[in-house]
């Protein structure tokens, strides 16, 4: 039975969140193709993880029998999160852009699961794991746009998840999502609607494709 790890990080609930809405379209397509598969949903807004502290960081470099109680507790949390990632056959990551980058709750999750000697480098235990990222944003930061240099979502995730941890990334990018609510962006509404429709379609296609891929593996 294949397992999909679905991680949400939007502060907005339900259909008020663009990233959650597109992610659910992906999940529905996954379940349609793979009804016997398991979906593990981790909502980092509803149940945020503590940020990495001295105990959680240092515990990875101390033998188990030498860890303090605080280090042992923090390490156990990290190991649970890493094992959850390791046993997934695919990952769905909803990563809206907040202040030009990912939500701090998602950054905390990454800090916990990134462990040198286990989930990094050529021997990464999650190397090759397919990850679909829903990278929603209110404006556009695509190449050639005025705010291209402010894109710290896709660029960051490629660096840390793909290049450092070896995960295989695929992005779905609903952009200009603020066009309907921002009068200054009114002329961009047609482009926003096209981007939204494309994101929903891509989510269905990618959800089905990912389900077929992991079932055949």
From TrEMBL:
Classification via InterPro entries: Flavodoxin_fold, Flavoprotein-like_sf, FMN-dep_NADH:Q_OxRdtase_AzoR1, NADH:quinone_OxRdtase_FMN_depd
Domain Flavodoxin-like fold: 3-173
Keyword Oxidoreductase: yes
Entry note: cofactor: Binds 1 FMN per subunit.
EC number: 1.6.5.-, 1.7.1.17
Pfam families per UniProt: Flavodoxin_2
Catalytic reaction equation(s): N,N-dimethyl-1,4-phenylenediamine + anthranilate + 2 NAD(+) = 2-(4-dimethylaminophenyl)diazenylbenzoate + 2 NADH + 2 H(+); 2 a quinone + NADH + H(+) = 2 a 1,4-benzosemiquinone + NAD(+)
First-tier enzyme category under EC: oxidoreductase
Coiled-coil region list: none
Cofactor: FMN
Keywords per UniProt: Flavoprotein, FMN, NAD, Oxidoreductase
Annotated positions binding FMN: 10, 17-19, 97-100, 136-139
Main function: Also exhibits azoreductase activity. Catalyzes the reductive cleavage of the azo bond in aromatic azo compounds to the corresponding amines.
Subunit architecture: Homodimer.
Record-stated family: Belongs to the azoreductase type 1 family.
PANTHER family: FMN-DEPENDENT NADH-AZOREDUCTASE 1 (PTHR43741), FMN-DEPENDENT NADH:QUINONE OXIDOREDUCTASE (PTHR43741:SF4)
Protein's name in the database: FMN dependent NADH:quinone oxidoreductase
Organism: Streptomyces werraensis
Gene name in the database record: azoR
């Amino acid at each position: 039975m294949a397992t999909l790890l679905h991680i949400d990080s939007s502060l907005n609930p339900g259909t008020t969140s663009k990233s959650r809405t597109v992610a659910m379209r992906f999940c529905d397509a996954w379940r349609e193709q793979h009804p016997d598969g398991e979906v593990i949903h981790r909502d980092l807004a509803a149940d945020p993880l503590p940020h990495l502290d001295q105990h959680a960081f240092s515990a990875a470099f101390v033998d188990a029998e030498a860890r303090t109680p605080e280090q042992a507790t923090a390490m156990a949390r990290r190991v649970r999160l890493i094992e959850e990632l390791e046993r997934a056959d695919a990952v769905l990551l909803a990563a809206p852009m907040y202040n030009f980058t990912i939500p701090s709750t998602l950054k905390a999750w990454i800090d916990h699961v990134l462990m040198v000697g286990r989930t990094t480098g050529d021997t990464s235990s999650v190397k090759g794991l397919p990850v679909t990222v829903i990278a929603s944003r209110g404006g556009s930061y695509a190449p050639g746009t005025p705010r291209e240099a402010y894109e710290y979502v896709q660029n960051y995730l490629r660096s840390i998840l793909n290049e450092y941890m070896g995960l295989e990334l695929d992005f779905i990018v609903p952009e200009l999502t603020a066009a309907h609510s921002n009068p200054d962006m009114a002329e961009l509404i047609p482009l926003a609607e096209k981007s939204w429709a494309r994101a929903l379609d891509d989510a269905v296609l990618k959800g089905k494709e990912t389900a077929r891929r992991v079932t055949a593996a």
